[in-house]
Sequence to fold (267 residues):
Amino acid sequence: MAGEAITTQTLRERKARGARIVALTAYDHLLATLLDAAGVDVILVGDSLGTVVQGHDTTVPVTMDQMIYHTEMVSRATRRALVVGDMPFLSYQLGPEDALRNAGRFLKEGRAGAVKLEGGAPVADTVARLVGAGIPVMGHLGLTPQSIHLFGTYRTRGTDAAEAEGILADARTLEEAGAFALVLEKVPTTLAERVTQSVGIPTIGIGAGPRCDGQVLVTHDLLGLFTRFRPRFVRRYAELGQAIDAAVRRYAEDVRAGSFPGSEESY
Fold:
């Protein structure tokens, strides 16, 4: 899909006129090329690559060097979508100056247009420092996977009044700190709607119901490539895992039977 490059200002304008934002993840050049051509607005190079690409149980082991490596591949493929690099665990929690050095790498080496980090009030000063240095920041509230060892569970966040009010307050704090958008992960629809109506920046939901300003999914979930588990909020638009399994089995049968390669595949 042709069109002007998506920027942080584009996303704010989308919210203002009620146009939904389409976001997906990518970790390599080929997939990013396909998503960009299909008209995806935001490509998140998520630290979810730790589970869907590297095979870890959590996102915690992912390193800065790995994130820069994948982000650069995605950015090089992208002509229209805004590329957002996901800051991995311990790349920003040690303080604003450490975060600034790492976030700068996403823009300089990874060629991303923005970064994303998890958390609310505790990272507000860091968000302000990055934005003050000219680095656009996307926030992430609700279920924050990097804190899984603290939570101890992937349950829905914000289901009780106190936690819901905390998430709402954090959203406002991140907006005040200069974040240009917020990911809301695995929170009740009613809370996501309250946050969306309470802030002037776009909200992008994942397991947060239909009333956010946009939606994001892990592309490997959407395509049926990642099958180890399937969150309730995922809608499968294809079953490529099954298609790949069938194709490889047919290939193996043809090789073992001596029918591949045939004359048409030979020189």
